Amino acid sequence: MSTLHPVIAEVTQRIIERSRPTRSAYLARIDEACGKGVYRHRLGCSNLAHAFAASGDDKVALRGTVTPNVGIVTSYNDMLSAHQPYEPYPEQIRQAARLVGAVAQVAGGVPAMCDGVTQGRAGMELSLFSREVIAMATAVALSHDTYDAVLMLGICDKIVPGLLTAALTFGHLPTIFVPAGPMTSGLSNDKKSKVRQAYAEGKATREELLEAESAAYHGAGTCTFYGTANSNQMLMEIMGLHLPGSSFVTPNTLLRDALTRAAVYRAVAITALGEEYTPIGHLVDERTIVNGVIGLNATGGSTNHLLHLVAVARAAGIILTLEDFDAISAVVPLLARVYPNGSADVNHFHQSGGMPFLIGSLLDAGLLHGDVRTVWGEGMAPYRRMPALDADGKLVWNEVVASSNLDVLRPAAEPFRADGGLRVLKGNLGLSVIKVSSVPDDHMVVEAPAVIFNDQEEMLAAFNRGELERDLVAVVRFQGPKAIGMPELHKLTPPLGLLQSRGFHVALVTDGRMSGASGKIPAAIHVTPEAIDAGPLGKLRDGDVIRLDAIAGTLEAKVDAAEWAARPQAVADLSAHHSGMGRELFAMMRNAVGGADTGVTVFGTTDRHHAADF
Questions:
Q1: Residues of CATH 3.50.30.80 domain(s) within the chain?
Q2: Which of 61, 134, 380, 610 is within CB 3.0–4.6 Å of 595 for a Cys-Cys bond?
Q3: Is 223 annotated in some ligand binding site?
C-alpha cells in the first residue's frame, strides 16, 4: 500500500478537527451504552417474556444472557425488485445463527419505496423524506434493547442511508449490511435509452417503450444501471460494512446464500459477548466517511450521496461539507464506466474485477485509507478479494490483481479521467453541485438566457410545443425540500438530451435532484438556499443570462448587482403539491428540514440558511 495522498490526508484531518466537539460527544454517548454490557439482562421478567413469547425453540436461549441475539431489520417488499429477494432471508438467518450458538429475530420492518415507480409522480415528493422515516422506523425496531448485533437488509436509494443513520444512532451495536445483489443483465442501457429518446420524439409507441423497459427491468435484484441503489452497495463495501466482494453477487444463487450465512456468522463473532467486539459507532470514523467519498468519485456514483453521506456522517458526529467532496474529487480519478457514465452495467463491472479490483487499485495508489476498521476486521486488505465457491462448495476469497475489461474498469494509473467528475458550483445563484463525468468538453461551459419554470410539467409542455429549440438554461425552481420534498427530475433528461443532440447549448439549474442521471447534460442541482427559502433562484426572470462554468466552478446570473439586490422574490402556489398521495402527512418534515449542503435532514436541524456565497 502506498503512502496516503496528501490531499486525502489533509481533507481527512480537516474533517477530524472540524468534527472534534460533535464526534467526542457522540463517542461518549455510545461508550456509555457499550459499558452497560449485554442488554437483554436488563429487562424485567415480564419485559423479557414478551420479547421471546413467540420464539418457539429459541425461547430457552433467549431466557439467558450469554446467547447472542441478532436483530434483523428488513426492508422486504414484493414490489421493489431489489428487495423482493429478502423474503426468505429471516429464516435463512435464523438457521445460520443457530449453527453458531446464536439466535436471530426480525426486529422490525421499514418502508422501501422505488423511485423508478414514483418517478414524475406525486409519490416522488415523499421519496427523500422516506430516508428519515426509515431511520425512525429502525430506531423503533432497535429500541426494544434486546439485541447483541444487527443485520440490515436494504439496498435501494433512501433505504440504506436511513438504515445507516439509525445504525449509527445505536452506535454501540455491531451492525452488518447484507445485500441481495443486482438482477441479471437484460436489455442494454444504451438500447433502453434510445427507445426512451425515440418515445420523447414521438417516434416510438407506448407499447414499444413498455416492452423496452420490461426487458431492461426484468427480474429480481437491483436495476443494473449505476444509480443510487448500486452506489449504496459500493459505499457499504468501501466503507467496510459489507463482507468483502459481496455487493454485486446476483440473487438466488448458491454464492449469494453462502455470503448471507457468512454475514450471520460474522455478526455473531463481533458482538460484545465475543473477543472481537466491533460497535459500528467506532468502526465508522472520519476515515471511513472519506473512503466513501473517494469511492463515489472513483466510480462516478450518484449525486444523491452528496446529500446522504453528509446526513449519515452527522449521525456519527462527523461534519462533512460539500467542499470536502470537491477537494477529494480533484485528486481521485474515475476508474469505472458504468451506465449512465458508460455503456456497461454493474454485472459487467463486477465481472471485470468489481469492488476488489477498484479497492486494491485505490490502495496501491495511496488514494484510500487502508488502516480503517471493518466488519471483517482491521484494514481494507481483505477487500481486495472476490468471493467464490470452491469445488466442495466452500466459501473462499481470491485476490483480484487485474481488470478483465479495461473499457469498464481501469487501474488508477490508467483512469478514464484524472478526476472524479463531481464539482461544487458557487456564485450569486447559491451553492450547487454538478456531475460532469459524462458531459462533453464543449458543454462544460454554458452561457445562455434563462427559461424559468416552477414545475417540471411546465417545462415538458413547453418542449412539446416546440418552444425550447434554442440555446437556453432551463431553471426549474421550487423543487427543494422545503417546497415539495426535493423530487428527482429524471423526466427532463430525454428532452434536454434531444435539444443538446440537435446542436443547442443547454443546461439545467434546479433546487431539485437529478441523481446524476442527467448524463451528458450539464445540470446544476441541489441549489441552496432553495427558492422558497429566499434563495436566489427566486430572483431570476425569463431572459436573464446565466453562466454555468463547470471548469471554474461557478454559477452566475449575469445581472447588474444593483438590479439584482432590488429584485423581489418570486412566489409560487405549491398547495397542489402539499396534499394527496400522503403528502399532507409530511408537512412537519417540509417545515423542519435543513438545506442541501447539510444533508436535507430533519434531525438536529435548527438553522435555515447554510450557503453563504450568493
A1: 422-598
A2: 610
A3: yes
